[in-house]
Every structure is written in structure tokens, then in C-alpha cells.
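Hey, can you fold this one?
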Amino acid sequence: MHILATNDDGVFAPGLMVLAQELRKLGKVSVVAPDHNWSASGHVKTLHRPLLVKEVQLADGSCAYACDGAPSDCVALPVLGMLSEPIDFVVSGINPNANLGHDVTYSGTVTAAMEAVIWNLPAIAVSLDSPENYKPTLDFRPSAQVAAKLVTLVVRYGLPQGVLLNVNVPYLPFEEIKGYYVTRQGLRVYRDELIRREDPRGRPYYWIGGDAPTGVPEEGTDVGALKDGAVSITPLTLDMTAYNAMEEIRTWQWQ
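Sure. Predicted structure:
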């Protein structure tokens, strides 16, 4: 099995290296990731310029490829033939913060996995629910173990056509994780604020700031699973059709 490991935090992000180390226990792993941080980039495809890729060495001495494109580009290029061997599975992560609820529309971690689904490849996106403002070095090993376990299960059982898994792991030692919940997307509560400032010439510029988002820990949701100390596994599909609204909209007076 040939696994592609990617992320949105950049090729030198520690979560990606730990993920690749754990996945190598399952098969061959190639690492292709952005050359800089693309957090909250959404689903981007680069069409207006060439994409540059260079071989780099990670902190553990292993080789990887740094691409100046988006996370989804880092999936498309290997799938289209940048690497000599075809890709069998895509794992995106490990993001240092959770991707819950509406986060999935922003997240480069998740949309890299979405790109894999477009190419009919099994894919999971893995994020770590690390404590806010956590100062020590994050321990990504438990979430990497979770990722490897899920790859094994997906290979064994398969996934429905067009479905990826968005996985969020509580920040706990592996042996203290309370289980694996299959969840729906929960309600993410954003606390964004607009910050207006002026440059030295008096021209206004803006930052989108504010406190970190929170969530409503409802039972059965990704937010609720993390509150219980369990891994959240949310099946996602790229079909965003609101089927429950179709019949109502058909009743509108179109003439």
C-alpha cells in the first residue's frame, strides 16, 4: 500500500512527520505538503501559475516534497503522476487544533482529504484537540496511532463512494482515550472580531481577530465526543445538496 501524507501546516510541521513515521508501519509513505502554512485555506486549486516542488529532508532524516501550492495541490500532483508509484490512500494531518462543525469548509487539512475523494481515493483528515495556548511541545504520537488504526479499518471495510472521514482526537495518552464515536458535525461557535488599524500613511487595514472558537457539546456530535474524551469520526461527503429543502423550493411560484 502506498500512502500519501500531507497537511496544511507546512511540510516541516511536527504533526506531519510523526504521522508519516506511524504510517510507515503499514506500507510505503510519501510526504508531499505545502512549503508554508496554509491553515484555513479551504479547497484551493492552483491553475493560474506553475507549481514548484522540491525535495527536502525532515527532522528525522526522511525525505519529503515541499510544494508551493495549496494542500489540495499536494494531493492532485502525486495522483496525476508526480510520483512514479500510484497512490492508494491519502491521510491529511495531523492538524494541531480540532476541525469541528463548519471548520471543515475552512480547513486545508480536511479539503486535502476532499481532493483525494474527487480522485476516488480513500482519505482521512486527522486533527488534534490540543489545549488552547498550550506551551510545551505537543505530543502527536497518540493521534498518529489513531490515524494508523483508522487506515487499517478503512482498508479492511472500505468507505462508501465519495465519503471521507474527518477525525478529531482528544489530547490524551493513547491508553486514556475513551473510545471511538461515529459522529455528526456539531455546532461551532465563532467569536470573530474585526480589528481596524492604520498604516504609517493613514491607510486603513483590517485583521479578523477575536477569541478562539468554541462549540456546543451535544451528544452525537464531534464536539460532544471530544468532551467525553473520545475520538470523533465524522463521515463527510462532497455532495452538499440540501435534499430536505428541494421539495419546498419546487413549490415556489416561478412564473
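The chain has a mean pLDDT of 95. Let me know if you want another pass with a different chain boundary.
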